Amino acid sequence: MEIMIIIKKQAYYTLKQSRSPKGSPKASHTVTVAVTVKPRGEYSFARKSKKIAIDLLCKFSLFLPSLLLHPSIFFFPLFGSLFHFSIRPSIAIREMTMMTPPPLDQQEDEEMLVPHSDLVEGPQPMEVAQAEPAATSVENPPAEEPPTLKFTWTIPGFTRLNTRKHYSDIFVVGGYKWRILIFPKGNNVDHLSMYLDVADAANLPYGWSRYSQFSLAVVNQINSRYSIRKETQHQFNARESDWGFTSFMPLSELYDPTRGYLVNDTVLIEAEVAVRKVLDYWSYDSKKETGFVGLKNQGATCYMNSLLQTLYHIPYFRKAVYHMPTTENDAPTASIPLALQSLFYKLQYNDTSVATKELTKSFGWDTYDSFMQHDVQELNRVLCEKLEDKMKGTVVEGTIQKLFEGHHMNYIECINVDYKSTRKESFYDLQLDVKGCKDVYASFDKYVEVERLEGDNKYHAEGHDLQDAKKGVLFIDFPPVLQLQLKRFEYDFMRDTMVKINDRYEFPLQLDLDRENGKYLSPDADKSVRNLYTLHSVLVHSGGVHGGHYYAFIRPTLSDQWYKFDDERVTKEDVKRALEEQYGGEEELPQNNPGFNNPPFKFTKYSNAYMLVYIRESDKDKIICNVDEKDIAEHLRVRLKKEQEEKEDKRKYKAQAHLFTTIKVARDEDISEQIGKNIYFDLVDHEKVRSFRIQKQTPFQQFKEEVAKEFGVPVQLQRFWIWAKRQNHTYRPNRPLLPHEELQTVGQIREASNKANNAELKLFLEIERGPDERPIPSPEKSSEDILLFFKLYDPENAVIRYVGRLMVKSSSKPMDIVGQLNQMAGFAPDEEIELFEEIKFEPCVMCEHLDKNTTFRQCQIEDGDIICYQKPLPNQESECPYPDVPSFLEYVQNREVVRFRTLERPKDDEFTMELSKLHTYDDVVERLAEKLRLDDPSKIRLTSHNCYSQQPKPQPIKYRGVDRLSDMLAHYNQTSDILYYEVLDIPLPELQGLKTLKVAFHHATKDEVVIHNIRLPKQSTVGDVINELKTKVFQSTCNLVELSHQDAELRLLEVFFHKIYKIFPSTERIENINDQYWTLRAEEVPEEEKNIGPNDRLIHVYHFTKESGQNQQVQNFGEPFFLVIHEGETLEEIKTRIQKKLHVPDEDFAKWKFASFSMGRPDYLQDTDVVYNRFQRRDVYGAWEQYLGLEHIDNAPKRAYAANQNRHTFEKPVKIYN
Predict the structure, then answer these.
(1) pLDDT in tens, 284-301
(2) DSSP-derived 3-state class of residue 886
(3) Which residues are identified as catalytic?
(4) For domain 286-400, which architecture applies?
């Protein structure tokens, strides 16, 4: 889905919906950008999600004016896992006016009509424009060029045209009929209006659509260089059968004979039309169009998908994986070789995209890992190391080394003495610098660059003392498959963060590493091996340092045809798309008016090559080998074919589901098996009973014959009961099937009995058995008879079990059946028992005592009710934890086995405890303290679990902040079984009354910083913090930061991104101070600030540097500080004081530049400038944005502390656990 957003150059912005070319235009000067929204992973757009995306884009348009300075790929943190948002200047849809500009007084703003952007099912123009037409052959034909035609239309007697519209002759492109439509006097404007029109639109069938990229031009017949040509693209349909430009060119220019457009009353119009095949994203068939299938994205596994596709398309590697020994008893989720074999087999033979869940489960990954994006280079190394280990001792041992291993030699050679030290090392991939290198060859040049060890850096040669030397690397041999990892991500020491290098970096189709007489090779290299390589695949990263999307361009057979593997979708691509468009760097938009000297609009390309795979020419026949079913183990073929058959059976099963119904038959044996083991409430779990799939038209009597065969019960001895769901959410047998019902079909009975209208019919099979346990006829059931089910509870062992059922009279009393119940339980005939009716268990348990002397009718007992009974406990044994049925069922309903973890190891269970959901906060911490052998439970602090991130919640549970355990485990609509705990040094209630602040204390004259944790009551003030800090400093006995003198005055500052935002007054309460995102800095107040005069100014001074590149964005770094400046003081005088304060050597300080900043704009100062004049206002709102800037390189060592850390931050490297 793509929406065009037009940004007016006056910095206004609007989200425009496109309209018909014949609509009335509105003059404005605009820049057009395209915003693309694609579903990520396995998500797709439904109507509702499209509306959400549009709402997001409308809000997002507010930020577009600033984003135009840095067009890039953006990922919304909240929606990044669902939708992929990208922004770029719209190149293909912009107006491109190629002409000499008119005189200034004749310039007029014009607006292009934006291609259609309504949300329709089917292809979107910008996406289609990037894809080549797909051939139907599975082989690799050369990329097809779209049908293109150049049509010239000569219009004589142009000024004498009296019609409002004028059509050209019909011409045919790509089998479609087209014509040009013009409005000679303008379409309600004073411009020529011109469109491309579908000539036979009125006669085309319903739902027709065709897509075209085209240009329209008015030819300058005097000098063709001044011809006006405009390009666009559109998906034509019945609603929009013409498309083009309402304001093509001013009529005043067109009708001026001196301009060259109207000569001899004749106008020449040209149209270049290219018709492309419409690729529908939603119905696109990768296998049909390319012969290959994609991989499903589990959430954030695109990096893995691109690597797996690359490895799969190295046939020698695939063959080796197939030959790894596996057995039919292996489980794919527990065996990496088998999972990889299964994945490769499906990639080779499936018709649809392949899931990777089996493989990631074999890695030992959980859902959390699937939603965490990792580095593809890191995964490549870890996976290859794991496979290399798995291949040891097998027929394919050494395959990884044969394919990917090369060797280089590190050497140090003395210049003045005969001494040389060498060390041979192996590599599986090479890390090549991108920054400062224009192409792969430049990176190799840098890789083998010789470093001189001289001066203070001389080499200590054994037996020769310190010597001048040369240090470098040369290659001994290169592998058959050369993997080049491009260092697109680097650590920026100046900004103290990782950055992505988007510089232009070229790579050739053929790579000659023997160039310049083997300059990269060591003297020991085998010169008989020709190191000429052909590019096989390009892995691309699109995005920034904090996230992005991976995909791969691969040519599996090294032919001219490239393919793009982008998760589930595979498309044919040309060599330009695979190579040149992945170089990175900046792209410049052609100007609409070239003669205006406007600066070109450039934008950074954030999609660029990240990993390259080359195959050596001399080895390509061996590497690109044939892999067929003979290479696949028999058990694997059988297993996977069986999976395919099962998949097909499921498909057929679903397709025929409307013809069948499922009958689930529960018996006494099922109830006995489940009660007290799997379930405790109601009678049976219907998912675990015998089910029959029966055609709906089958007579019920025929179904009874099936039951007879299955259970060995004659048809005439079977009595079936219908189950019913009661209002209290219990599920019980309700009534027996009547004789006339049993004469109906299965489908009729299901429809009559099941109001929910699902495909299942649930029955209870009543079988009466004689003394020899053989089935006997069931007694006749009258309206007085009630079918009851009985459970027996053993309070001493806290065990409940099913003992059987009885048919009783509603007028009888429970006392009448006590003998039978004792017999069923194995008790003495006169044993005293207590009876309870199990009524319901949701949302709470209801189990009431049953009076043995009241009739069943009076007790409101009916068919299907459950009665639980037990021996009453003597008083001396009443210490049983659950002495009766209600207390036991209450316990069962609310018990919860909780997994406890520490915050230091949030992924590992420390131990488990069985607790009750009804336990109070005090109950939980008391039991936990007992488990930890801790005397004071109040020193335990608990933290709940986030079910979505699989991490602890950011905020811990407050002391008695929740009522029950169930509240601790709840997370929105989910329930967890994990709790985190920590043992505090003071009781939690006391801690909650305190505020802990992390304060970085800076020495007045030395470059020393110490972090202090200040813990004070929340009602304390900043003055109390300072006093506590002084106490800590004076009590320090280690080599920590000290005060310059005992009576030094301290202050507390708020620092954020290397700027001072606030000086806290000593009276401010600390309760509202946030040290999680802002740094709190304590320092001494300098004497000069205490004695500041009435004409002095206290100004902010910050360190800064500028980014390289076009934008030169200012980046602050280092420690900011205050400085007193005096009236009339020049920069030269201030520089002397700054140098003394910061202890900067003369050599370094001479390179520093100074600028006054106001709202982010630097104004560089000269030594003679009076700085005081730049800071006239004493109390400026946002004073941190008016400062003296010190521009220099950040050479300071990074702090060993992190003052601001989120409470729970877990960075996870790529790991394969199995």
Answers:
(1) 888 888 999 999 988 778
(2) helix
(3) 302, 549
(4) Alpha-Beta Complex (3.90)
